[in-house]
Inverse folding.
């Protein structure tokens, strides 16, 4: 897990992902002007790729709404650039999983249009997911405006960032983007095509492994099991196909397959895990038991001494280690059966 993902996790969801990432990008642009200038050039904006004498980067800056607006506006990022005799301003609105608010981009465009004394005024809409916008719709109330509009995707920023000179900050931002699915582009790679062609067979094998004897053993040990399911959210956001049981006392146990979504050529991990909520009233006893189990070979503990974090123990083995067996299904079932009853 990246440093920034750990920091975000410490806040327990209080800080929205979009706001947190906005602050990371703002800090990057504020402390590394070369990357900011290179990104402007990457966007291919005429007359906005030169060096500037001064740069101001702010987040969540409030702009009073125009008389016909229902609310004030607060773009995620505002960048002001001063160079020679000209001054430029950029509004950046970021979306990671969410969609545009009601008339949000139109309000931003109209506010930019009404701001005087700027040579270039630019509205950038950058999203993780597919959410196409056209200038005509955004600028329907100001069709002749000189404000520029640019729509990009976060995977484009990711590709740009990986081409720059690496620093500790850019390395951590790149890791963060990989974890939160901001690194994927819109093209099927050869690996994607092979995976898609074989997905049905792979899914059938996972179901055969997990939802027979293993699920019965799991139910006997824990007394409850989640409904049999495979969801888009489970595979896309977590990179895993998982059987789990939520237990009283704010802890849960699961087993299944974990994919390395940042490197699709890696073998999946066959694993068991147990996690406990930092707010669990039984946390002390559970942590003590987890520490004892983690003394056994293969088991590893994470955040066991961090009272504010979800603590977990994991036993994982690469799928590659089972491929030498004559019957892969039976070998993995035996692995689950052996360790889930210990």
């Amino acid at each position: 897990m990246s440093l920034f993902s750990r920091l975000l996790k410490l806040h327990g969801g209080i800080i929205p992902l979009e706001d947190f990432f906005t602050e990371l990008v703002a800090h990057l642009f504020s402390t590394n002007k070369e990357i900011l200038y290179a990104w402007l050039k990457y966007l291919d904006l005429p007359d906005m790729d030169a060096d500037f004498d001064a740069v101001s980067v702010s987040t969540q800056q409030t702009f009073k709404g125009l008389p016909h607006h229902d609310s004030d506006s607060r773009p995620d990022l505002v960048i002001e650039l001063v160079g020679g005799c000209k001054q430029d301003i950029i509004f950046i609105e970021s979306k990671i999983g969410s969609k545009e608010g009601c008339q949000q981009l139109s309000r931003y465009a109209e506010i930019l249009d009404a701001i005087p004394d700027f040579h270039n005024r630019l509205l950038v809409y950058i999203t993780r997911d597919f959410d196409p916008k056209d200038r005509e719709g955004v600028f329907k109330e100001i069709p002749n405006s000189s404000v520029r509009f640019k729509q990009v995707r976060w995977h484009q920023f990711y590709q740009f960032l990986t081409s720059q000179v690496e620093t500790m900050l850019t390395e951590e931002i790149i890791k963060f983007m990989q974890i939160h699915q901001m690194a994927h582009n819109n093209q099927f790679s050869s690996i994607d095509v092979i995976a898609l062609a074989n997905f049905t067979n792979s899914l059938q094998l996972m179901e055969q492994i997990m939802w027979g004897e293993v699920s019965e053993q799991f139910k006997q040990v824990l007394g409850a099991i989640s409904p049999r399911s495979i969801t888009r959210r489970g595979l896309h956001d977590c990179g895993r196909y998982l059987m789990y049981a939520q237990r009283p006392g704010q802890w849960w146990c699961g087993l299944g397959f974990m994919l390395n979504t940042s490197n699709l050529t890696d073998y999946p991990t066959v694993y068991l895990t147990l996690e406990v909520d930092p707010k669990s009233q039984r946390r002390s006893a559970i942590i003590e038991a987890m520490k004892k189990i983690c003394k056994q070979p293969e088991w590893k503990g994470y955040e066991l001494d961090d009272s504010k974090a979800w603590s977990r123990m994991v036993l994982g083995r690469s799928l590659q280690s089972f491929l030498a067996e004559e019957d892969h299904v039976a070998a993995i079932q035996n692995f689950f059966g052996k360790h889930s009853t210990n």
Notes: Residues 190-222 form the longest helix (33 residues). Strands lie at 54-59, 77-83, 86-95, 120-127, 148-153, 240-247, 251-258, 269-276, 299-302, 311-318. The first strand starts at residue 54 and ends at 59. Residues 228-234 have pLDDT under 50 and may be disordered.
